[in-house]
Each structure stands twice: as structure tokens, then as C-alpha cells.
């Protein structure tokens, strides 16, 4: 007799995964959450938005790319959950929105309860760090589509911002300072390139191994590559409360210049001085081992900058101080300038050489 289990779907394993993750999900909550894990839909009490004059809801969806392949190879799964939260909620904070709640989706070849629970643990920890609730999720077992040890993750989050406090290109002015906020490493972009370099022929020739210590990194290569993406949400929200922030740019796929250009209005350009910082060693390692040109690295990786704030020059020093107090390194990396043609599209460019 044919059964669902014979087709490769283990319902009992899924139930066990839910029980293992229950404790972690309970820790990622907010007062507005109604009910708990196991419902058909997550519920959030929207009456809390009554304090807003004109609340705008913001939403974002993302994943973590091929970084999951390294997590699977090394058997370390909870950090991927942190990465997922960072990729989603920090796209919300760019417009000044406070993350309210998040949902996740995990597709896997085989439900291994401890593995799924580890991923959800990381998601729950990330939600707590971002101040948002983990309101629901789905784990889908796809035998035959994914190998037993393979999985992928995605998530979506919703936030809220007061309409007249919306951040973005409309607020940016000539003379604004470009404040760079340090990344924790590679974050979650460019891993197809990174894996091709360090796990391919070039990496083998260089004697690289995920388990081996790399002197310039001060730890194993695997530990460096799985360093969780920094979650900036609460830091950026607090900064915007204390100084006049005009725009944020989350430095993800496409690199520094391309992402900053997304918040630059017509008639202006952002000039970022490479001399203002030295990228962490992992970026030069990828470049040197893989013979990756500088411009290709900058189009693919964050080069040590995870978030950028555009703000009045007079507020820059205070912003650096405030972020330092929250454990974040930040520095003035450039300025906003006028273009000769006021109707030309806004741009961003990197100039000079790194220190």
C-alpha cells in the first residue's frame, strides 16, 4: 500500500520540528501578537497603529542566497536564520519603518527536526534583535526536488512608518555627509562568487579549506564565511530619532555604489572615498585568490560597509558617536554633490584607493 511516507514525506518529523522550535518562537514576540504557534494564520493587533497620524505599512521579502550551501556543508544551521532576518528587516528600516512581524518559509529535501529547529532558532533570535515578532512560518518537505541534506530559506516582514517621517531620496540634499556603517563580514551576498573562488581550483591551489585556520582572518575560513549578517534595524531607528537622517541604503546585492544610487535624487551624486576605510581581510582574500578585479569585487560584495546613512554634515560626528555607543563602527566616507545637469539621474561612485 502506498503512503505519504513512502513518497518521502515524514509528517511525524515535521511535528517534532514544531515542538523543538516552539520555545524559540515564543521568545520572538511583541505585545501585539494574538495567539501562538500552530494556527492557520498569525495574528497581530493592528489597533496599536492608532497612535500614528498616517501609518504607512512597509513590506519586504528576501532570502540568503547560496550561503545556505556553506551552512549545509559545515553542519551549522542557526546562523542562516540570523542572516535571513537581517536581509529582510534591514530593507524595511531603509525607509524608516519599524519591523513589526516576520514570517518564514523553509523548503527541504528531508525534514530533520533538529536541523529545522536550529534554523528557526536563528530566525527567532534575529527577530528579537530586530524588535519584531516571528508570527508564522512554513516548512515544506520536497523529496525528489531537493536532496535530503539540502534546504533553502526565505522570509517576509511587515513594518510601519509615519508618512511624514518616511526616509528616502526626496530628503537628500547637496552637502549631506555619507556615513558608512561597518558590516560584520560578507553578510549574505556574493556567495556564488565566494564559493567559486574558495572552494574551486583557485582555492585548492591556495591551500584553502573551510576547516583550516587562515592567519589573516584569525579563525577558520568556514567560521568567517558563516559570520552572521549584522542586523541594523534598532540601531538605525534609534539614530533617526536622535539625529536628522535623510536616507539609508542597505548594502546588499550589487555592492556599495549601486545600492547607494537607489536613494540619490536627480541632479545629485554621492562620492564615496575609498581612502576612508580598509576593507576587512576576507575581501582581499577573495580578490587575491580568485584574481577577481577590484571593480568586480565592488559590484558583488559589500567591501566592509553594510549600511549607509545620508545625513546633514553637522550631524555626522554625533551619529558616529551614537553608533559607537551601540557597538557599531561608523565613519564619514564621502559627500553628496550637485551634478551639472539638475535633471540627470542621481548617481553614486567610489573614488581613490583604499587605505
UniProtKB/TrEMBL annotation:
<dbReference type="GO" id="GO:0046084">
    <property type="term" value="P:adenine biosynthetic process"/>
</dbReference>
<dbReference type="Pfam" id="PF00586">
    <property type="entry name" value="AIRS"/>
</dbReference>
<keyword id="KW-0963">Cytoplasm</keyword>
<dbReference type="InterPro" id="IPR010918">
    <property type="entry name" value="PurM-like_C_dom"/>
</dbReference>
<dbReference type="GO" id="GO:0004637">
    <property type="term" value="F:phosphoribosylamine-glycine ligase activity"/>
</dbReference>
<dbReference type="InterPro" id="IPR036921">
    <property type="entry name" value="PurM-like_N_sf"/>
</dbReference>
<dbReference type="Pfam" id="PF02769">
    <property type="entry name" value="AIRS_C"/>
</dbReference>
<dbReference type="InterPro" id="IPR016188">
    <property type="entry name" value="PurM-like_N"/>
</dbReference>
<dbReference type="GO" id="GO:0004641">
    <property type="term" value="F:phosphoribosylformylglycinamidine cyclo-ligase activity"/>
</dbReference>
<dbReference type="InterPro" id="IPR036676">
    <property type="entry name" value="PurM-like_C_sf"/>
</dbReference>
<comment type="pathway">
    <text>Purine metabolism; IMP biosynthesis via de novo pathway; 5-amino-1-(5-phospho-D-ribosyl)imidazole from N(2)-formyl-N(1)-(5-phospho-D-ribosyl)glycinamide: step 2/2.</text>
</comment>
<keyword id="KW-0067">ATP-binding</keyword>
<keyword id="KW-0547">Nucleotide-binding</keyword>
<feature type="domain" description="PurM-like N-terminal">
    <location>
        <begin position="56"/>
        <end position="161"/>
    </location>
</feature>
<dbReference type="InterPro" id="IPR004733">
    <property type="entry name" value="PurM_cligase"/>
</dbReference>
<dbReference type="GO" id="GO:0005524">
    <property type="term" value="F:ATP binding"/>
</dbReference>
<dbReference type="GO" id="GO:0006189">
    <property type="term" value="P:'de novo' IMP biosynthetic process"/>
</dbReference>
<keyword id="KW-0436">Ligase</keyword>
<feature type="domain" description="PurM-like C-terminal">
    <location>
        <begin position="173"/>
        <end position="339"/>
    </location>
</feature>
<dbReference type="GO" id="GO:0005829">
    <property type="term" value="C:cytosol"/>
</dbReference>
<comment type="similarity">
    <text>Belongs to the AIR synthase family.</text>
</comment>
<protein>
    <recommendedName>
        <fullName>Phosphoribosylformylglycinamidine cyclo-ligase</fullName>
        <ecNumber>6.3.3.1</ecNumber>
    </recommendedName>
</protein>
<keyword id="KW-0658">Purine biosynthesis</keyword>
